[in-house]
Amino acid sequence: MSQITEQTKDQLKNKVKIKTQTLLVELGTEELPPTQLPILESSFKENFAAELKNNRLEFDRIESFSTPRRLALQVFSLVEKQPDIIQERQGPSLAQAFAVDGAPTTAGLGFAKSCGVELSQLSHKETATGAVLAFSSNIKGKATEELIPCMVQQAVAKISMAKSMRWGDLTESFVRPVHWLVVLFGKEVIATNMFAISAGRYTYGHRFHCPRQLALKQADDYVDTLNNIGMVMPNSQQRQEFIRAEIERVARENDGEAQISAALLELVTGLVEYPVVMVATFAAEFLDLPKEALVSAMQQHQKCFPIADQHGQLLAKFILVSNINSTCPQTVVCGNERVMHARLADAEFHYQQDKQRPLTAYLDKLQTVIFQQQLGSIHDKILRIQTLAAAIAKKLGAKSEDVARAALLCKSDLMSQMVGEFPELQGIMGFYYARNDGENKEVATAIREHYLPRHAQDCLPRSLPGICVALADRIDTLVGLFAIGKAPTADKDPFALRRHALGVLRILLEKSLHLDLQELFTLATESYGAKITLAPVKNCIEQLMDFCFERLRGFCADKEIPAKTFAAVLAKRPTDPFDFYCRLKAVQAFQELPVAASLSEANKRVHNILAKANMPELSNNMAQIDPQLLLEVAENNLARILSAKEIEVAPLLEQADYTNYLQVLATLKPSVDDFFDHVMVLAEDLKLRNNRLLLLTKLRNLFLQVADISLL
Amino acid sequence: MSEKKLIILDRDGVINFDAPEFVKSPEEWRAIPGSLEAIALLKSKGYLTAIATNQSGVGRGYFSKQTLVAIHAKLLAAVRAAGGEIVQIKYCPHLPTDNCFCRKPKPGLLLELITELQIDPMVDTVFAVGDSARDIESALAAYCKPILVKTGNGEKTSREWPAGVLIPVYADLLEFVKTLP
Amino acid sequence: MSKTAVKIKTFQELLAALQNFWQQQGCVILQPLDLEVGAGTFHPATFLKAIGPEPWSCAHVQASRRPKDGRYGQHPNRNQHFYQYQVVMKPSPPNFQELYLKSLIELGIDPLEHDIRFVEDNWEGPTLGAWGLGWEVWLDGMEITQFTYFQQVGGLECKPVMGELAYGVERIAMYLQGVKDIKDLVWTYRQAASTAAGKLEAVTYGDIYQQNEYEMSTYNFLEADTTLLLQQFNAWEKECERMLAANLALPAYEIVLKTSHIFNILDARNAISVTERQAYILRVRKLAKQVAVNYYAARENLGFPLLKKEI
């Protein structure tokens, strides 16, 4: 088979400077989705960089740009042509290419033909496998401008888009309709066609401030032309920083500090080409709305930024980012104030209406809201949560009245008007309404906290009642859905069970709480009663436990706990996640010891021996080792030491001090080594053999109390 | 929105080496290096993989339908051995003169696949990977996203495809699959 | 509000201005559909015309009903009956956005004074098996228009793509008039009969619609006979299937609209549970998709007549 190797002649010898130019590529579009802009920009840039690399075109750097109406790249110091290369092709070996008498074979002739030359023009090359036919050719580099159209097309075609659309009667699709294309290499337009548009040197400025065509003499003029004439800030990073600085300035001028959510800032940056930051006000009466509702109305609905004073209290003002240097800024401000007022007035109305009904009043209504078709209503769920949370409260030492009350009321706010308008405020409104009803602070806090963590990076519930209800709610959901066969599949998880399981684990692990999940799952199934078919219940709990172990595996992987360590503990299937974690720590500490490897090997060896001999590894009814049968010194020693260690570690196991437990067992190494060096386990004499197997079983058993270190 | 992910592959020139005189027997079927790895990678990324292929060799009498089944059995075994999976293979046995709806560039095979697998290419992205103009045209007609690979006829096709319509081009199936999320 | 004199002073003038503008762009000016619909999109001139290859451009006012949005006439800007100004152009022209912005200028909205933004919003109509990509157009923070490029309608791909504009005309009018409550929106001015000549009196939105809002809200939320409506839904569903079998796509479509409206009232009446809701939506969608297929076939049989005309 032929091989091709290439060398760049220029790189080897010539210090001749290759001429370079700046390349500008700009795609002009209708407003692109703001949350996608960063990905579109980076995808375009990476794709083009890959195209340049594939074509061996050197350049200094690529700068990328994005605004709602354009995606652009500037490639600086791009070479004007590809380097010349020497391409060497290797063909068949000489033995294959020529017959014994020296006549050329079809293989040899074929290779020559594929190189486009006569057989006599080929050279011979020595390789590790013998001499082969070879052909070197000088391939002249192509001019960059020849390659640009295809590279641009491919870079655009491969941009990763969440969803693309068609427009007019074009076959092609893109994120939004494309209207102009600039491809300038230095001063020259490079003829490129896409979306039925031909590339030119004309870009367009701001939609309203400078809607006309702007001619670009050369690629380097791009940024200045847009910034100074076009009234467009094409560099998204700069634009974002500008907006941030402006928001902070305006907030300061209004005696406050802006609350800038990173996600909102990025979104707003993607909605403007020429940002103008303004401040607006709303009626001070609205400040008695819950802070979260105000912030939600401003951020989620109106895409504005709240301002707070130095104590963190919201001011009756908000900051908006417009896309126009208005001839009458008051118009823009008033318009926004009008919309904000309407929204806050709505919220106020809902809030006042809601406050007239206590949370208990919604309980009946919750009977009409389905949690899941087979599993009943939310009201049914609440009763189950109460039972489960009470059990958890007992174990964790939480105040049972608070837990019971919180569990009863935790879903009531779902029926409120406020949560109807602002679904993101579930739990939070429950908190406010509970306080309004005169419920104590712990109950209200638990209602609020039971939804935490709402996502992987979210904080956890802090209060004990909050933790109890949070766990109970999630466990109830997990058990119910698994029991009716609705466990998540590889790509479908409509009930967010992965998130719920992870939430449970995070709470237990990060708060160092000992709870046996298997026990809780069983308890949960009892609450469901006839709603779930009993036959697969045992299976479903095991399945659910496995599911939780999988989540735990991922959690540990993120914390860089090695897979083998995890496997060693998983072999024990500890159903108390925090206990699982303690064992992991113990095994990790053990693995630092120099003796770890050999003891792990020893365990593997014992496991194999016992497996072959069909002996159970872990057994509660341990037959006694017969000291009379311990003929060899080594086995006698081992037996003695094992007995001693057994007694020594017993209290450690009781205290779940796994780390020290394993550290103590580590001292067994010399005795174990000695045993294997001098004792033949599988002796002819059955009595001896069984005694020795029993000894090994005991050894293994000791380690297995914590983890299966044979898996390390 | 079903959120199913489907890729429809052309066979000759994408998965296995094409032959100028048709792949007429299982012995002649040889996988292109990397293609089996690519199909396994598709599975691990959660994609359903199907095959849509013109096989006029059947209609021309060069090999029987049973032989084709045997060729596909070899393909499926190889795919499975590498850790991948093919959910469906659809082929068109007709001659070009038969004017059927399934022979590419007509979209019949692709439409059958997406109907059976209950996927709407307007809603969920369906990629169709091929090495010739026929593959691209049938993909566009079935509202799938065409991908061209340079193996098989692909190098030639990429040079000849009208520059106006954007089709992403990759060196081979594996290179494309690696770019998928 | 703004420093320039307000050009459009009444709701009536607003509708006329839009009508006039789109007529000048070559749209066929239609009249509103005489059936209850939730939006201009449901008009056959949008839904059916979006299907198939024939070009089409039209514009019209459309009364829209959303029973769930009724507030007995007490809410300052939410009614169960309101108007949209609907514009569709197929294939969508390359300067569709520019035309839209021009129409705003016609209404006296100066884009150098106001902050006009295209904010990503993708529209979906599950009962019609339709969806598209586009934006909400914001005017100083307020949404005033839904701007959509249809991708799929009745389950069929849109080729060529139809661009749609749905103006929220009451909102725009309230903004232009500086009015906070829709009841006070001036529909038109007219000569007051009682006083001296030259004195104009305002006829307000409330004058015309307040009683309607109250009575219809009462009907939708409290009074509607749900048993009757359920029976009607089932009966119309069967009738629709019968019309589809008879290849009468247009009558079938009108029946789809009836079932859709009945569903909306049942929903407002809380007669449909959460799990049943999806089932009803799917039933209507099934009919809509079948209508789309039948309509396409019918046009195909006719040879897609509008392809030959330059509409």
* Sheet/helix structural class of chain C: alpha+beta
Side by side, the strands of the main sheet of chain A go 3-4-2-8-9
SS content category of chain A: alpha+beta
Number of strands of chain A: 19
Oligomer: heterotrimer
Distinct helical segment count of chain C: 8
Percent of residues in helices of chain A comes to: 40-55%
Shape of chain C: globular
How would you portray this structure in words?
The complex is a heterotrimer of chains A (712), B (181) and C (311). Helices cover 48% and strands 14% of the residues of chain A. Chain A has 712 residues and is α+β, with helices and mostly antiparallel strands. Chain A has a 5-stranded antiparallel beta sheet, covered by helices on one side. Chain A has a 4-stranded antiparallel beta sheet with strand order 1-5-7-6. In chain A, helix 16 packs across helix 19. The model of chain A has no long low-confidence stretch (mean pLDDT 90). A 6-stranded parallel beta sheet of chain B has the order 3-2-1-4-5-6, with helices on both faces. In chain B, strand 1, helix 1 and strand 2 form a beta-alpha-beta unit. Chain B is globular, with a radius of gyration of 15 Å. The model of chain B has no long low-confidence stretch (mean pLDDT 90). In chain C, 40% of the residues lie in helices and 23% in strands. Chain C has 8 helices and 11 strands. In chain C, the strands form 2 sheets. In chain C, strands 1, 2, 3, 4, 5, 6, 7, 8 and 9 form a 9-stranded mixed beta sheet that branches. Chain C has a two-stranded antiparallel sheet with strand order 10-11. In chain C, strand 7 and strand 8 form a beta hairpin. In chain C, helix 6 runs parallel beside helix 8 and helix 7 packs antiparallel against helix 8. Chains in contact: A-B, A-C, B-C.
